[in-house]
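Need Acyl-protein thioesterase 1's 3D structure for a figure. Predict it.
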Amino acid sequence: MALETMASTLAKLTTVVHDATTKHTATVIFLHGFGDSGAGWAPVGEQLSEYVPHVKFIFPNAPALPITANGGMRSPAWYDIKSLSTIQHEQDEQGLLRSRQQVMELVREEVDKNKIPANRIVLGGFSQGCVLSLLTALTSEYRFAGVTALSGYLPLHFKIMTMVSDANRKAPIFWGHGDADQVVKYKYGEQSVEFLKEHKYTVRFHTYPRMGHSACPQELGDLLSFFNEVIPEELPVMAKA
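Structure prediction for Acyl-protein thioesterase 1:
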C-alpha cells in the first residue's frame, strides 16, 4: 500500500502546544494514550521545557472513536481496540494508518511551514500513542532525530517490516516500560524491542521497577537526557574576527 496516497480529506488534529521559550530549533511531537488528551501530557512538556528551552512540544488530541472492546462506546483513541487480552489479536490497521496520516501532516507543517528539519524532530508517545509513533516513524520517509516509545508495543508485527522505509533504520529509539504494567504488559514491550533489535534497529530499553501503566520521575529524567542528546541546543556560530 502506498501510505502517502491516502486521501488528504482527513481532519487536521487539534493540539496543545508548549512553545519554545528561546529560539525554536527542535520539536517534540508526543501522542497521548487511550482515553486521554494532549492536555494530559502538556504539563510534562512545560516541566521539561525549563531544561530544553529551544524545543517546542506538540501534544495532539486523538478523535473520539467507537471502541469494540468497550461495546462500541466512543473514547479518545488513535485506533480501535478489538480486544484487551493480547497484542496478537486482530489490529485496527485502517485506523492506525488513518491516524498515521494525520500525524504526518503535523510533521510536514513543522518541516515546511516552521522550517524545522526532520532530523530535529522527535516523535513519541505513551501506550496507544507509543504504538502510533512507532508505526509513523518506521514507515516515514523523513529521517527523525529519534523516537520515544513509552509503555507500548510494536503494531502490525506480522507485516510492518514490509511497510518500513530505510529513513529511520538508524534513528535511536528510547523505550521505557514499567515491569508492573498490567495494561500493556511488560513482556509485550520486551518482545517488541527484541523484534526491532533483530531487524537491526537501535533501541535503548529502560525498565522501571514497580512502575505500572504510567510514567515516573526517573523515566522523565531519562527522557530529558535523550532529548539533550538527540536534539541538543544549537549554539550560535561565532563570527570570525
